[in-house]
Design a protein that fits this description.
With about 700 residues, the protein is α+β, with helices and mostly antiparallel strands.
Length: about 700
């Protein structure tokens, strides 16, 4: 018994000694941890107030709740790391404040919102301010801004507005600000709330929905990621997602600290973060309607400014180059006259447009109106300075509260199209119109071009194709660049005089641009049945031979040959001879530009079986005109309006061929002529025209 007691005593002493060593070890580890924490601690920045600095010291753990999967704004990657634009901003703020946020990962955004309401999450890293959220959250200023766009299937809806979606099945992500915006602003829309942007896009692609409204950045991310090719952006919703930091409303100091830290992030740093995550190449530019009219206005204003500069340059050199001025005077006067003539021609085109046009200053003041607009509203030109759209030219029951919204979106670069109830100035008669607002940039200021189309008798023509003139805007822009270059290289510097077109290409450029516009306007007015088409007998072979002969010089300039073969007797057709020649000339111009150098463009005229005509008339034969060359046809990657320089004359013509073909298609359709293209890539291309011939018994 005694031995057992001694053994127990010895064991107890050993256990006490071991416990003492463990206690010492714990104390040492605690001291090391405390020293490490002290070493990693960073004092709050001095630009915070004392109360804000004290608050940061008292709150070392700030819980942040991100959206678990909302790329590229914020999400958790495959390894569970917090990523995206919001994550990079938060990392930058950690560096500025010298703190470390605790990231809370939750399954869904609804869970994040629920935790924020329960004060279990202190801050949301990317949230939009809504009336409901303001009850329990306090928001900083927005550090990201994204538009909400309307996405549809390409074959179903080409262009639409939120108002036109009423009664349709439209998706929005559950719990997001966009869904709340649709509920409150457009209650007539059949809103389908989906769990994610990806789910909504998938259902839309498979035809389960009519449209989806989503912020553009995540929508484009999923479209690219999943390779969805049948969806496109069909319009703007009018809503902009303004993303900010949302902090607990009972922690006001945290909100002021975050706001100050956000202000410390430089614009360059913010741009670098956004560029890292957003692929701007996905935001494909689509031309807005009637931008051609901006080109006309810009041309007139730039011509005036350049004329002033030109005169000033002449005066500054008058003493040194008196002799040269006398030598060039006659040619200079001729050039000025040609410039004036072309300007008057463009002004005539502007006033002959079959649509009302208003030019506004950025504050909404009316600067100018074309003749169509003056007639439409019963005004004289002297009345322009005394009227306003809201005060004199709109019905009393118009939704005037929407004007600031449309105007702000237009000034932000988003063209707006909407219906309106107009009123005549002379007799107060009301009529329905469709208005399109587009921002245009001119030196030192912005202006707004409003195109107004009378729809009082055309409500059934909702899908009428867009005015063809908009296609010429990029081409005219490039012509203006060439004109600017020609004027910048003053004719004073040309020792042999400016009459030589190689030294002074300005007159030919102006004439070429004016004729280009005339052709487009003619085709557009024919399409709208605003300009008649002649119907006379044409000796087709003779007419085409005349065009081929006139195109020989152009063909030589392009290093190609032209050859014509008539395989039938001289046949006749009923059509507009001037426009038929113009159609053939456009196609020959395209062919000589697209043809391989040193090859031949062949024109073959022959009869063809009337069964090849889509809608053959009784007692009607057909004539085919084929224009064949070795080379590629027009392709989708040939952009209209690429940058040109004066030294790239042939390249300038080559990059106009897409627009020429569009014009040719419209002209052929207006004349009732079938136009088709057959091409073997990298080998041979043929454009074929089918005419209805006039038989002797007719």
């Amino acid at each position: 018994m005694r031995a057992t007691f001694d053994q127990i005593s010895t064991l107890s002493l050993k256990l006490a000694a071991a416990m003492s060593k463990a206690a010492v070890l714990c104390i040492v580890l605690l001291m090391i941890t405390q020293q490490s924490a002290i070493a990693s601690y960073k004092e709050p920045p001095g630009w915070l107030t004392e109360s804000e600095q004290l608050w940061l010291r008292q709150h070392p753990h700030i819980n942040v709740g991100p959206d678990p999967y909302y790329p590229p704004i914020e999400f958790f990657d495959g390894e569970g790391n917090f990523s995206g634009i919001a994550a990079d901003y938060l990392q930058e703020i950690e560096s500025i404040l010298g703190i470390k946020f605790s990231i809370i990962k939750l399954p869904t955004w609804d869970d994040v919102i629920a935790k924020a309401k329960a004060r279990e999450i202190d801050m949301l890293s990317a949230a939009a301010e809504t009336p409901n959220r303001k009850l329990y959250l306090k928001f900083t200023t927005a550090y990201l801004k994204f538009p909400a766009v309307i996405i549809t299937r390409q074959q179903a809806i080409q262009h639409t507005t939120m108002a036109e979606l009423e009664g349709k099945r439209v998706a929005a992500t559950k719990g997001y600000a966009v869904a709340e915006y649709i509920k409150t602003t457009y209650p007539g829309i059949d809103l389908i709330e989906v769990n994610s942007v990806e789910e909504g896009l998938s259902k839309l692609s498979y035809g389960e929905l009519d449209a989806m409204v989503s912020i553009n950045a995540p929508a484009l991310h999923y479209i690219e990621k999943n390779g969805i090719v049948n969806l496109h952006i069909a319009g703007m919703s009018g809503y902009f997602l303004k993303i900010a930091y949302a902090t607990r409303s009972d922690w006001p100091l945290l909100n002021s600290i975050m706001q100050k830290a956000l202000n410390e992030i430089s614009a360059e740093k913010a741009q670098k973060i956004q560029t890292k995550w957003i692929n701007s190449s996905l935001n494909t530019w689509q031309p807005s309607q009637n931008q051609i009219l901006w080109a006309i206005l810009a041309f007139m204003l730039s011509t005036l400014l350049l004329a002033i500069f030109w005169n000033h340059a002449l005066k500054s050199k008058v003493r040194k180059k008196t002799a040269e001025i006398h030598k060039h005077m006659k040619a200079l006067e001729l050039s000025r006259q040609e410039t004036y003539t072309s300007e008057q021609r463009l002004r005539s085109i502007f006033n002959s447009a079959d649509i009302g046009l208003f030019i506004h200053a950025s504050d909404g003041t009316i600067v100018d109106m074309n003749d169509k607009a003056l007639t439409m509203y019963g005004m004289h030109r002297d009345d322009i300075k005394n009227v306003s759209v809201a005060g004199n030219l709109s019905a009393q029951d118009c939704p005037f509260e929407q004007i600031p919204v449309y105007w702000e979106l237009t000034l932000d670069g988003h063209s707006q199209r909407f219906p309106w109830q107009a009123k005549r100035f002379d007799n107060d008669a009301e009529f329905a119109v469709e208005v399109c607002l587009t921002k245009l940039k001119i030196p030192d200021k912005d202006i707004v071009l409003a195109s107004v189309r009378d729809t009082s008798e055309q409500f059934e023509q909702q899908n009428v194709r867009r005015f063809l003139l908009e296609e010429t805007a990029p081409i005219i822009t490039n012509y203006l660049k060439l004109i600017d270059e020609a004027l910048t290289n003053s004719p004073m510097d040309a020792p042999e005089g400016i009459a030589n077109t190689e030294k002074n290409p300005l007159p030919s450029l102006l004439d070429e641009m004016s004729r280009y516009l005339e052709d487009y306007l003619d085709a557009a007015l024919i399409s709208y049945k605003s300009r008649p088409i002649a119907s006379n007998k044409i000796h087709l072979s003779s007419a085409i031979a005349h065009v081929v002969e006139s195109m020989q010089k152009h063909s030589t300039d392009m290093d190609t040959l032209l050859d014509i073969k008539t395989l039938c007797e001289d046949v006749e057709t009923l059509s507009d001879e001037v426009r038929v020649k113009k159609l053939v000339q456009h196609l020959l111009q395209i062919a000589t530009i697209q043809a391989n150098k040193g090859t031949t463009v062949t024109v073959v005229i022959d009869r063809t079986n009337s069964s090849q005509v889509k809608q053959p008339a009784k007692n009607t034969d057909a004539i085919s005109v084929s224009i064949t060359y070795y080379g590629d046809s027009l392709t989708s990657n040939q952009h209209i309006g690429s940058d040109l320089t004066q030294s790239e004359a042939k390249n300038r013509h080559r990059k106009c061929t897409c627009s020429l073909y569009l014009m040719s298609q419209t002209l052929a359709e207006s004349l009732g002529i079938e136009l088709s293209t057959e091409s073997t890539p990298n080998v041979v291309t043929s454009y074929k025209l089918i005419f209805k011939s006039v038989l002797p018994d007719q």
